[in-house]
Each structure stands twice: as structure tokens, then as C-alpha cells.
């Protein structure tokens, strides 16, 4: 599959779309062209009905993503206009991942820092290898973390842990991240990819409309009560019950066989 920059790799592997941050010499720190490539890659994955899950990972064996590429800040974030352009690109990247219809998994091996943690928080599920480290060093750089990213962190770990992460700006271990709920599961480095693929296979065998509906409704429940769209949720639920996949699921159950879902 195509990518607008060699520092981002897009690979279709059966039912999995792999989006790989490919800047290993800088621990996969994200440059502007990489931020701008994220929405384009997600859109290409989402246009392919065979892709059921999107997995994000970092190239090499040292980092998932070690934040934004700070070496570019002097040239690309040195005045209000360039800051706005850069922030728009990062916000769009985060939002595109978070709003993807396909389930998204961050497969974390190594450093997951700053914007890298923001990318992981934009995913639905986070798996990590033993020895990975997590943190948001904004307080050490004098910059402010975006409100949308702060909200995602609070949604995942709660306000008390979010404040600890921001206030201390320190690195957290895998065990600490797991205890906070920052990540879903920890695996050995040798089994991380296999475990991720196994989860993708399980998801891919399930009814896509049901999975997508669950994702959208869970996200809807995170909104303030006065913004919760019950009608929208009801429409999603009705779409499942009127789908061919629901008919196939009932038929397969009666015939005692594995259903073949097609996402319609």
C-alpha cells in the first residue's frame, strides 16, 4: 500500500493494516511529513473492506514513538503561523486514529513518550512489550499538551494518574502503566507481535458491524451526558439487527458452524 513519505510505512497483511512509524535513527520521533501521512494511510486502510483491524507500531527494536521530532521545532514551530500549521497536523493525526471505524491497536515495544503516548492513547487497545517506558515530558519542555490529548489520557487513567503523569514528567515502567490502566496487557518482547496478531485474528472473525458499533457507542458514552446522542446509538444498533451478518450469525448458530461475516 502507498505512503506519502518513506518515514511512514503502510502494509496490508490479510485482515490487518500495519501503520509503521519509520524513523528509527530518531527513535521514530514524528516529523511533520509523518503527522501529515497518518490521515492518508488510515483513509486507505478504511477504504479496503478486507482490513478489519489497524495496528500501529514503530520501526526497529528501541521505540514505538519517542514523541514529536523536536529537532524540527526551531524551523517549523518558531512563530504563531507555523505553530498553528504544525498543531493542526498533529490534531488531525490524533483525531483520525481515534475516529477510525476499524479497531486500532498500538503495539508498543520500547519508548512511548510524549506525542508517541498521544498516538497510543488515540488507539482503542494498547499492548506493550516488557521493558517499554511511558511518559509525557511537556513540563520539562515548557510546552502545553493539547486539551484533546489530555482528555484522552484522563479517559484512560483517570484524573489523579493523569496529573501525576503531567506534573512529574517522569518515565513510567510497564508495570506502572499496567497498574494505571494506561496499557491493556504486557507481553514478552518475543511474543508481543504473535499475541497482537492473535487478537487481530479474533477481532477479524467477529461481525465487523457489531465491532464498529461497539466502538462508536463506547466512544459516545465518554461524552458529557448532555452531548450523548442516543438517537445515533439507536441507529447503529438497528443497523446491526437489520444486517446480513446478523442473519448469518443466527443461521451459523443453528447449523453449529463458524459464521462468515462480510460487514454488511
UniProtKB/TrEMBL annotation:
GO molecular function: enoyl-CoA hydratase activity
Biological processes annotated in GO: fatty acid beta-oxidation
CDD domains, A to Z: crotonase-like (cd06558)
Top enzyme category: lyase
SUPFAM superfamilies found in the cross-reference section: ClpP/crotonase
Keywords: Lyase
UniProt KW Signal keyword: no
Record field: transmembrane: none
Superkingdom of the source species: Bacteria
Enzyme Commission designation: 4.2.1.17
Pfam families tied to this protein: ECH_1
Cross-referenced InterPro entries: ClpP/crotonase-like_dom_sf, Enoyl-CoA_hyd/isom_CS, Enoyl-CoA_hydra/iso, Enoyl-CoA_hydra_C
The family this protein is said to belong to: Belongs to the enoyl-CoA hydratase/isomerase family.
Name assigned to this protein: Enoyl-CoA hydratase
Amino acid at each position: 500500500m502507498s505512503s506519502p513519505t518513506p518515514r511512514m510505512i503502510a502494509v496490508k497483511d490479510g485482515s490487518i493494516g500495519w501503520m509503521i512509524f519509520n524513523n528509527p535513527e530518531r527513535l521514530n520521533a514524528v516529523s511533520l511529513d509523518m503527522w501529515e501521512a497518518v490521515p492518508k494511510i488510515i483513509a486507505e486502510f478504511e477504504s479496503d473492506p478486507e482490513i478489519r483491524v489497524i495496528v500501529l507500531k514503530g520501526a526497529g527494536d528501541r521505540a514505538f514513538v519517542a514523541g514529536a521530532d523536536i529537532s524540527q521545532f526551531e524551523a517549523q514551530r518558531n512563530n504563531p503561523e507555523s505553530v498553528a500549521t504544525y498543531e493542526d497536523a498533529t490534531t488531525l493525526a490524533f483525531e483520525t486514529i481515534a475516529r477510525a471505524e476499524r479497531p486500532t491497536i498500538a503495539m508498543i515495544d520500547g519508548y512511548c513518550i510524549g506525542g508517541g503516548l498521544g498516538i497510543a492513547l488515540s488507539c482503542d487497545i494498547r499492548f506493550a512489550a516488557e521493558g517499554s517506558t511511558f511518559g509525557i515530558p511537556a513540563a520539562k519542555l515548557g510546552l502545553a499538551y493539547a486539551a484533546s490529548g489530555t482528555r484522552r489520557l484522563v479517559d484512560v487513567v483517570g484524573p489523579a494518574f493523569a496529573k501525576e503523569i503531567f506534573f512529574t514528567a517522569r518515565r513510567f515502567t510497564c508495570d506502572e502503566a499496567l497498574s494505571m490502566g494506561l496499557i491493556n496487557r504486557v507481553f514478552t518482547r518475543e511474543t508481543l507481535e504473535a499475541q497482537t496478531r492473535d487478537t487481530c485474528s479474533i477481532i477479524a472473525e467477529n461481525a465487523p458491524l457489531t465491532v464498529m458499533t461497539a466502538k462508536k457507542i463506547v466512544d459516545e458514552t465518554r461524552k458529557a451526558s448532555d452531548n450523548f446522542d442516543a438517537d445515533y446509538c439507536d441507529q447503529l444498533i438497528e443497523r446491526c439487527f437489520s444486517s446480513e451478518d446478523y442473519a448469518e450469525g443466527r443461521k451459523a448458530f443453528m447449523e453449529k458452524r463458524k459464521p462468515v461475516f462480510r460487514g454488511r
